[in-house]
Amino acid sequence: MAKIIDGKAISAQVRADVAAETAELKEKGIVPGLAVIIVGDDPASRVYVNNKKKACAEVGFRSEEFALPADTDQSELLALVKCLNDRSDINGILCQLPLPKGLDDKAVIKAIAPEKDVDAFSEENVGKIMIGKYDFLPCTPAGVIELLRASDIEIAGKECVVIGRSNIVGKPMAMLLLHENGTVTICHSRTKDLAEVTRRADILVAAVGKAKFVTADMVKEGAVVIDVGMNRDENGKLCGDVDYASVEPKCSAITPVPGGVGPMTIAMLMKNTLKAAKLQNGIK
Ligand code: GUN
After folding, report:
1. Which atom of ligand 1 is nearest to the CA of 98?
2. Model confidence over 151-172: pLDDT tens digits?
3. Whose alpha carbon is nearest atom 9 of ligand 1?
4. 147: domain range?
């Protein structure tokens, strides 16, 4: 029987720590502020944005939503980002991705002031992560590291395999595991004999975006399996990138979907926003 890594409980602890620090900041007259931009009406993005706003309220932040229509043009979006960069009461800015067709997400990310880039998506923040000298860590990979740490799972010296090479998850995930002294392999759609590579993993992170992609034959007995996926199965039920029913009996620990990595992403966003507010107010 695998240990089920409880992302709900671990994220609640992170949010409680953020709330306690926020209460202290309030005594100094500082209230962290997060601006959340959503363009168009993608239903998944709407759920994520609502959850982010709710988390802000729970930890004591101010949040402001900027909901723009799908036909917003690039210059309007960039003008909004510029205006938010200039506002001293806004400490963090995030633009929910994906953007509707026709809008350039890279240009929007580039426009966000690096000190307010609480997603850590900008070139400057990604570069800082590469050299291990960063202010913000990308929320999902940082959440995975926190899950492992809170579960007393050692990373140093372990074979870590990441499936997926996105800029948001796969690549930074590999870098953070490397910072923790794991031996890291990144797999992707062109990897030859994927199952042979994933079976080497002591820690396997699935970030492919395909429902139930990781099956039992791809997992070593006793491995730790982290599922970053958020998909719908053939019955429309929420599921991860891992075929949980077949993989769970084989591993030593596993994250469920929902209730694993998902809640951590938002908790780490709260952590980054708090840090942004502190840095912008000269507090270490
Ligand atoms: N879309 C999916 N995940 C994320 C995320 O972590 N941040 C933003 N801004 N958009 C996303």
Report:
1. 1
2. 999 999 999 999 999 999 999 9
3. 96
4. 139-262
